[in-house]
Specification:
Order of helices and strands: EHEHEHEHEHHEHHEH
CATH class: Alpha Beta
Helix content: 40-55%
Number of domains: 1
Number of helices: 9
Strand content: 5-15%
Largest sheet: 7 strands, parallel
Strand order of the largest sheet: 3-2-1-4-5-6-7
Number of strands: 7
CATH architecture: 3-Layer(aba) Sandwich
Distance between the termini: 30 Å
Shape: globular
């Protein structure tokens, strides 16, 4: 299904996986709204909403950069109003914004707990709810949330329970949306990478350069996202997708091009 002139609202899209998705969809002629906090570049993270929008336009899409902290409902509504004013509607929501804190319960400060839940859970909930009236008007509406399949193995709770709970909550929101919005033909799915992805978060918080070299480029998640949101919304909903599985459905099994180190050992992402 063509993405030409279709509008995609991406939270946290100034860098990493969110920006990669924006770039991939821009190649198909999509209008891409980058809704994120970064208006000044952090050297450790790189990128702002403006630099991301510039890259998206160079890739072939129309772009709108909107500063938005998804923890705050007024900012979410303002960002959506600006997006609709510019592009006329919303066809796809990508819930990509997320905060990470891999600390055990004893060492998780209350402000850390609040932050990751305010962004991951509250933010995903608020943005999804605010987009529904616009998605109802689309001919092929999709919500895609970057969160993992729910795995209740104790090892995923042992060392970072707060983060795990927040990411699983995102998935539960997505599953709830799929069932609630089925009557409106609005699809809701989740997407998670099989391996770690070469992003600033992985480098700075998980394993440094060594783990980056065992990761794949964000483009693999972007390719999977493109496949999902171009499927008929009435037929593709309620799934917890893994990027490799999605690309296999698309007929792509040779994934070597996505490895940071060609032929190198890959490291499984969390929750898998």
């Amino acid at each position: 299904m063509s993405l030409t002139n279709r509008t995609v609202f991406i939270t946290g899209g100034s860098r990493g996986i969110g920006k990669a998705i924006g770039l991939r969809l821009a190649k198909e002629g999509a209008n891409v709204v980058i809704a994120a906090k970064s208006v000044e570049e952090n050297p450790k993270l790189g990128g702002t909403i403006y630099s991301a929008a510039e890259e998206i336009e160079k890739a072939g899409g129309a772009a709108l950069a909107v500063q938005c902290d998804i923890r705050f409902e007024d900012q979410v509504n303002d960002a959506l109003e600006k997006a609709v004013a510019k592009f006329g509607g919303i066809d796809t929501l990508i819930n990509n914004a997320s905060a990470i804190s891999l600390t055990p319960i004893e060492k998780t400060a209350s402000k850390q707990f609040d932050l990751i839940h305010d962004i991951n859970v509250r933010g995903t909930f608020l943005v999804s709810a605010a987009c529904i009236p616009f998605l109802k008007k689309s001919s092929n509406p999709h919500i895609l949330t970057l969160s993992p399949p729910i795995n209740l193995s104790p090892k995923w709770f042992a060392n970072h329970a707060a983060y795990t709970i927040s990411k699983y909550s995102m998935t539960m929101i997505a599953i709830g949306l799929a069932e609630e919005l089925k009557k409106y033909k609005i699809a809701s799915n989740t997407l998670w990478p099989r391996t770690t992805i070469a992003t600033a978060a992985v480098k700075n918080l998980l394993g440094g350069e060594a783990l980056i070299n065992m990761s794949r480029h964000p483009a693999i998640v972007a390719e999977a996202a493109h496949y999902i949101i171009t499927q008929p919304s009435t037929e593709c909903t309620g799934n917890c997708f893994i990027d490799e599985t999605v690309l296999a459905l698309a007929g792509k099994t040779d994934l070597s091009e996505y490895s940071v180190v060609p032929g190198g050992k890959l490291y499984n992402d969390l929750f898998l």
